[in-house]
Every structure is written in structure tokens, then in C-alpha cells.
Inverse folding.
């Protein structure tokens, strides 16, 4: 009642999704449990909880489960421009934005790819622990655009996402990718609100050497100087660098070494 021709969901459904503290299944068309389930993974506890939920569904209906992750190589370009625009020319020289941007092109983009492959490795490990083998796909581009393109091409029985993502601000009731899939995708969608934390797994390291390293108080204090929008990315980059170098703890000296290497 009251639906518009181009409406994918109604206003009541939208309000319920935003306010609910429970997992929600949005059925946009009859579900035929004869095709795969696709779960979007971004490293957030909610996305890993979505993997666990989908493992149960895949085993129940005996259908494949596929995890997809997307990293955005243009993220740091926007970040640098937003900072550069508010600094004077003299401050820009001090922070060496041109040099740092070049280093990010060469290093951070590759690091982002490794980080998101690590998220997929974690998803695969969660499924393996539950006795299910799954496939994974890593894409590059704007997360929502790429996920929407992929699910439309695959036409799955169900798509699963976390209610909020890894980079969500405090107080946000719905992540941007989840909201866009809710409003624009024609697929049935399950939105997971609970969380599940996993130990960090690097795609090029064994589990014994891939756990998140401890940080000293001084290192954490220095990390707080990184702008909030880039802090999680910087932290993961430092962790990856430290693991690669064989460090067992991230000290202020290690952080400074990583900063110098990566131009942070």
C-alpha cells in the first residue's frame, strides 16, 4: 500500500531496519534456496558475524557460500586532498604531501589489498571451523558499486551484510554500503547486528605469527595523533609492517620506523 513504482523497500521497513537491534531478513522476492549466498566482508565484527550466520544457512540448504571484499584504492587520495585543502602552503611542505601521496600509491594501496585479503582469509577460517569450505572474491573500487554489480551479476539466493561497517562513526544506525544495498538492490538481504571478533590473519603469514601485536602505551599515544578518519587504516598498515619485519611488539620506535618507511 502506498508503494511507488521504483520503490525497493517501504518506509516502514526502512525505519525498522534502522531501529532494530536484532538480525533482519528483508525479502524482496520469493527465496529459492537453489543458488549461492553472498556475504560482504569488510573486517568489522558485524561482517564476521554475518559469515557465521550464512555458514549455518548454507549448510542447512546445502548451497554454496561466497565471501566478497572490496578495497578502495582511491580512499587515500580523497583523504590527502581533504587535509591539504585546509593547510597553508608552508604546512603542506612540512607534511610533505606530494612525497607521501606517491608513497601511498606505491605502498598503501598494496597494503590495503593485503588487509582486505586478510579479511577474506578470516572469513574462510570461520567457515572452515564450522566444517564448510567457501570461495572468496577480492574486488577493487568503490565498495557499494562493486558489491552491487557483483550480486546483480551472480543473482544469489541471499546477500548478507553487517548493519554497520568497519569505518562507521559512533552513533550511526546504518552503514553506507548496507543502506545502499537496502535501497537499491533487488536481492533478498539479511542484515546482521550482532558482532563476532576474530584474531587477525595476514594472507601471507601462518596463524602462529599473524595475531595482532601488542602496543606500548607510548605507541598508542602517538597513534592518536593520526586523524580519526585514517587511524584504523594507519594502525593496520603499522601492524602489517611490524609482522613483516618480525617484531613481537609495536613500540614507539617501531611505529616511527613504519611511519618513515610508509610516509605516514
Amino acid at each position: 500500500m502506498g508503494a511507488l513504482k521504483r520503490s525497493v523497500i517501504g518506509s516502514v521497513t526502512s525505519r525498522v531496519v534502522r531501529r532494530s537491534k536484532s538480525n533482519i531478513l528483508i525479502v524482496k522476492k520469493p527465496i529459492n534456496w537453489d543458488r549461492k549466498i553472498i556475504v560482504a566482508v569488510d573486517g568489522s565484527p558485524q561482517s564476521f558475524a554475518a559469515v557465521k550466520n550464512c555458514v549455518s544457512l548454507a549448510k542447512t540448504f546445502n548451497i554454496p557460500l561466497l565471501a566478497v571484499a572490496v578495497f578502495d584504492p582511491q580512499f587515500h587520495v580523497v583523504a590527502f586532498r581533504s587535509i591539504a585543502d585546509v593547510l597553508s602552503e608552508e604546512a603542506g611542505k612540512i607534511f610533505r604531501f606530494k612525497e607521501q601521496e606517491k608513497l601511498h600509491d606505491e605502498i598503501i594501496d598494496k597494503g590495503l589489498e593485503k588487509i582486505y585479503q586478510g579479511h577474506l582469509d578470516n572469513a574462510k577460517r570461520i567457515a572452515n571451523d564450522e566444517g564448510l569450505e567457501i570461495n572468496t572474491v577480492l574486488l577493487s573500487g568503490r565498495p557499494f558499486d562493486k558489491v552491487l554489480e557483483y550480486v546483480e551479476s551472480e543473482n544469489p539466493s541471499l546477500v548478507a551484510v553487517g548493519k554497520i561497517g568497519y569505518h562507521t562513526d559512533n552513533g550511526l544506525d546504518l552503514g553506507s554500503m548496507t543502506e545502499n544495498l537496502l535501497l537499491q538492490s533487488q536481492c533478498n538481504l539479511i542484515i546482521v547486528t550482532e558482532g563476532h571478533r576474530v584474531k587477525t590473519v595476514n594472507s601471507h603469514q601462518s596463524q602462529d605469527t599473524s595475531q595482532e601485536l601488542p602496543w606500548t602505551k607510548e605507541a598508542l599515544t602517538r597513534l592518536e595523533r593520526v586523524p580519526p578518519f585514517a587511524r584504523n587504516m594507519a594502525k593496520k598498515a603499522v601492524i602489517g609492517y611490524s609482522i613483516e619485519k618480525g617484531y613481537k611488539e609495536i613500540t614507539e620506535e617501531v611505529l616511527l620506523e613504519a611511519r618513515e618507511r610508509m610516509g605516514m
Confidence is low (pLDDT under 50) at residues 1-6, 83-88, 90-95, 201-211.
